[in-house]
Write a structure and sequence with these properties.
Structural class: alpha/beta
Shape: globular
Strand order of the largest sheet: 2-1-3-4
Number of domains: 2
Radius of gyration: 19 Å
Number of helices: 15
Keywords: Iron, Iron-sulfur, Metal-binding
Protein name: 2-hydroxyacyl-CoA dehydratase
Order of helices and strands: EHEHHHEHEHHHHEHEHHHEHEH
InterPro entries: FldB/FldC_alpha/beta
Strand content: 5-15%
Number of strands: 8
Cofactor: [4Fe-4S] cluster
Family: Belongs to the FldB/FldC dehydratase alpha/beta subunit family.
Length: 339
């Protein structure tokens, strides 16, 4: 199967139905043994210092791993993607633009997905057959999420890792499913973690994966990963069709539905506080204003840039935030219904 790179989550069902192997370039970039070389490659080719490290990492990884075809989300994700796609096209890479319409109207979402299906020469029936197959894997991710939140057996990092991986199903649906099944069996044999503070993680998946282990050393457990969970489409499993699934997806649209979902998860998961991660030079940093205005919960905003580990200043801020949550924590820790 021919590989095709992705700048973020797209209707991967269409690509799989067309016989492609999807590759989320974010995952390929950040899991590289030396992720900095991809950033450095982009800067050598002229990308400015004041551009998000993810965009530069995607560019460098495309060249390093020989990606010859890309799907870029030019509306609903990074504001720099359009320029990135033009630069990649100048390098001889075939590019396809996809948009999550800002209007968030179902008919416009359907129109965009149908246009993608026409571009890749697939039918709605074949796409729905793939969606049915992927939903069996997404149910496993939902179970992992439950084992994190309800049972306290899965770590916040595991919750992050296996949900974010469903953006491209690691390029192989069958092996992704087998790995998840194995992981669930292993986690199921564990004893619940005894952590006092229940945290939510909001914002794009972090460059600094050590965040999860760090908070666990301070009597805290991340029991909700906002965007990673959206990548796994837990509500999309029950959607009527692919159009509804990608319409009921909070990440690429305005913050209204996103905030409603966050409020719901705060209540159901009994969260004590939220860590809101943003990336340097990203417009989404401004959204921290809206989250703090509309969510009645303590929120700490931390910012990442090029490093894939927490710096000393961020660790101090996290420690102070967790100390405060420990002092404020009330209630008996019981949770609401799981939906």
């Amino acid at each position: 199967m021919k590989r095709i790179g992705l700048t973020t989550t797209v209707p991967v069902e269409v690509l799989l139905a067309a016989g492609y192997t999807p590759v989320d370039m974010n995952n390929l970039f950040i899991t590289a043994e030396d992720h900095m070389k991809h950033i450095d490659a982009a800067e050598r080719d002229g990308f400015p210092k004041s551009v998000c490290a993810w965009i530069k990492g995607i560019y460098g990884a495309c060249l390093e791993y020989g990606i010859r075809e890309m799907v870029g989300v030019v509306e609903g994700d990074c504001s720099n993607t359009k320029a990135l796609m033009e630069v990649l096209q100048s390098k001889g890479i075939r590019v396809h633009a996809f948009s999550f319409p800002h209007s968030h109207r179902l008919e416009e979402v359907e129109q965009e997905i149908r246009s993608m299906m026409d571009r890749f020469g697939v039918t709605l029936e074949s796409v729905e057959a793939v969606r049915k197959r992927l939903n069996s894997v997404r149910r496993l991710a939902r179970k992992l999420d439950e084992m994190t939140c309800r049972e306290g057996k899965a770590t916040g990092f595991e919750n992050h890792l296996y949900q974010v991986g469903l953006s491209d199903f690691n390029g192989d649906v069958d092996s992704c499913e087998a790995e998840l099944q194995k992981v669930l069996e292993e986690i199921g044999r564990r004893k619940p973690m005894e952590k006092g503070i229940r945290l939510g993680y909001a914002g794009v998946p972090p460059m600094t994966g050590d965040l999860y282990g760090f908070v666990e050393k301070h009597d805290a457990h991340v029991v909700y990963n906002e965007v990673q969970r959206e990548f796994a489409f837990p509500r999309g499993i029950g959607a009527k069709n692919i159009f509804q699934q990608y319409h009921d997806y909070t990440y690429p649209y305005d913050n209204g539905n996103r905030i409603l979902e966050l409020r719901k998860q705060i209540k159901e998961r009994c969260l004590d506080g939220i860590i809101h991660y943003t990336q340097s030079f990203c417009y989404r940093s401004i959204e921290d204003i809206l989250l703090k205005k509309h969510l009645d919960i303590p929120i700490l905003n931390i910012e990442g840039d090029r490093a894939n580990t927490l710096d000393a200043r961020t660790k101090l801020r996290l420690e102070a935030f967790l100390d405060m949550l420990g002092d404020l924590r009330k209630g008996d820790g019981t949770c609401g219904s799981w939906e």
